[in-house]
User: What shape does this take?
Amino acid sequence: MTIGLFSRCLGCNDPMLAMTRRPGVFDGVRCMVSPQSLSSGVALGRALEPFGVPASYMEDLKDRVRLQTSFTLDQFSPVPWAKSLMIPTFLYQVRDDLYTRPDDIQAMFDNIPIANKKLHWIESTTRRWDGYTYFQREPEQILHWFARFMA
Assistant: This one.
């Protein structure tokens, strides 16, 4: 069976973490396309901004997450896990997405250690949902990526 992954949003984090822990499970997976990747800590911080919640409260939130889960928000970040991606990976993202920051997505992309990688920014919108529906509106790049690596 020919396998390619289409891993949306936080669903992109799962294969990154899994490749960090058990890379052999992905033998034979040809590629991954991931729209709208997300780091939990960045998303939570961005979600609080429109409400005028002071940045100091983010430290309280980080403490509460750690107390509830035994993990820090930084430990939920896919940015370091991206170093384990060994399959061709295409990320696409709304650049001005209100729930993330371009530097976080860029860091994730930069950490992917292979040459067969691509990052496409969706411009002229702040609506996260425009990233989720990009494939339906503009399928050419994504279909080309799958055709290239799954042929």
In short: Residues 3-38+80-150 form a domain with the Rossmann fold fold (CATH 3.40.50.1820). The beta strands are 3-6, 29-35, 89-94, 117-122. The mean pLDDT is 94.
